[in-house]
Amino acid sequence: MPLIHARVPFQGGQSENAVIEAKLDRLRHGGKPRVLDLFAGCGGLSLGFHAAGFKIMGAVEIDAAAAKSHARNFHRETLPELFQAHAKSRDITLIEPEQLLFDFGLTDPLVSQIDVIVGGPPCQAFARVGRAKLREVAAHPEAFLRDPRSNLYIRYLDYVRALKPVALLMENVPDIVNYGGHNIAEEICEVLDDLGYEPRYTLLNAVFYGVPQMRERMLLVAYRRELGARCWHPDPTHWIDLPQGYHGSRQVALQTIRRDLIQSDPYFVDPPQPCQDRCHAAITAEDALSDLPCIDDDSELKKSKGPRRFHWLTRYPTTPHNDYQRLMREWDGFESQEGVYDHVIRFLPRDYKIFARMRPGDQYPEAHRLALRMFEERLDEIERSEGHRLRLGSTRYEQERVAHVPGYDPDKFPNKWRKMEADRPARTLMAHLGKDGYSHIHYDHAQARTISVREAARLQSFPDGFVFEGPMNPAFRQVGNAVPVLLAKALGETMIVQITGIRIDANEEENHDQAAVGV
Question: Could you give the domains of the chain?
């Protein structure tokens, strides 16, 4: 049976125009923009917007560990009962905006509380709704309860309708613009247009914004028409020639974009292009990770299978080597002076020797061939020491094979493993980082392991003082699901100028440029 929430009476009375004008007046007289983060995860978007000058009012997140992480990082100084309210996991289909804000101690009229909504709602089953049905559902505040085809995107729109933000941000994977030939982003924009917003969407790669990771995402930004906004997406600060696979994936995603004179998509804008002459070099994996403690064959983390907890401090072995590492240690409000608490890795004893012999950029087929060669070397060693060759198919032969050769078919799982290159940004971190981590094998042959939780966080541009709740696997999942923080910060900095009308002054601009350098 669905959870029944006590209904908080609507305390409105103002017209929609008056509500928006009151919010804009407050913002233009120095009030901080107030953000609600939906489908927040641990808070990548929240942290980026916080760093850009926004106030994080709360979040909705269904994963218990991620919800606790969000509260720990953004509401750690609140009263205990309010902290518990923020740390509570919530199903957005079971909580109304009125009740949510009431739980957070916000008792002023509903429509006056939130200036900006951000979030990345999952897109499962959205394609079955379609333009006409989406408009119908979005037009009624409780239609999602009756419509079996409704989904989480519609809940996001329901919160927009109820809270009337002056701006919003929606993030998702590039395939959202070509979901089985269906352009979900364009249809979302049509609904937002009906609701009084000017939406635009594009594809951005986090690597162009100082993130040491090549992570392509769809970013949809919408402003109330009253703002007369002129800029939706930030200009790149960094440059790299992306691998061909990223160009190919982008082209597939963009196949549904209508560009002819008769049916052009009015909401899509071409991604802003980085200029090599005016941008900084992309942040590499070595730029991001080389100051963190070494985990080599002498480390207990590689020797023992014990639980990976975050209660012990691993001290920095050196001072920062570059500006990116300094930023990760000195991020305002998330400083970490001595070391890190989550520099923990998976126990994978069979594979350490394979990792050590892999070349930078090698994937699973190369690793599998290496493992077969190492297995043959082991058979030769046994023959030399024992005077006979193990018989194919014998029990011991199979035991030795299992001990040396991973069981995955290299033809079916070519991308399952990958060794990072030190001199390149990392490839996209995935949510399944919480299951194995083979997609990001450390570039250092001497360490020969998959990356740690803190290294994954560094590749997502989370500062070292950001805390992840729960044990190792949930922490990996939180990191892999997050929006890269520096990308979120760039989006927030662009948005805050549009909604406040206040330009960055010369000194702030200089500081911003220095922060954007990253190395």
Answer: 16-281+485-517 (3.40.50.150)
